[in-house]
Amino acid sequence: MMIQIENVTKMFDDFVAVNNVSLNIAKGDFIGLLGPNGAGKTTIIKMLTGLLKPTCGSIYINGEKMSRDNKKAKEILGIVPQYTNLDKELTAYENLVFAAKLFRVGDYKNKTMELLKFMELENYKDRKAMNLSGGMARRLMIAKALINDPEIIFLDEPTVGIDLNGRRKIWDILKTMKTMGKTILLTTHYIEEADYLCNKVCLIDKGKIIDNDTPDNLKKELGIYTMEYFDEEMKTKYKFFKNKEEAIKYSNKIMSLNYTLRETTLEDVFYNFTNRKVI
Prior knowledge:
By secondary structure, the protein is α/β, with parallel strands linked by helices.
């Protein structure tokens, strides 16, 4: 296993941010950690990267126990934090060169230009980071995380605050990284992002992983069809079915004429477990 999280709990005084989480991630997996703001996603990333120490439990990166001082484990990591880690006064090119020199990348000039081209930023290489759009800055942060050709990549809300076109470009980049055999852990509160990109999704709420499976299996477990209808108090109700025939039979039993039958989504799965929308 590339990543092993064993019975990890993290407390801040009396607040339990992460509650007895266990998770194994194999080489080449693209895992989505899906949950609302405050669910514990960023805290898990900080423990995985050695920035925070678990209150109890252990984390292993490629067999190495993670700690703040474990350089061997950190050498194979690429990290895209939630908030910018760019030097705003440096150009896009200079940001990557600086990161490359920190990692002692040999042919750093070619590596930098390859990454700028991969991120569709070669025409903006001389633009200061402070003058890049939100989407461009995010792509540059991903390029910075790839400068040392890491085996494992952590992305903490990589598309937050990015417009639709920018998000789609980043999705294409992440899908390409997936084909390169990288082991990727993505935290997000965008349902469609996890559904589109990840081969497995961990649903997390209030510091606990409440389910862990492929998006399709999570939907099948709940029921592949969802009926939305108003009850007598004009509140929306949800009913899940294994097939369309069962749903149609049920529709004949309810009094409401205002119902919708559709395919189940990951949002339905999450809402059913937590009884609240992902926002």
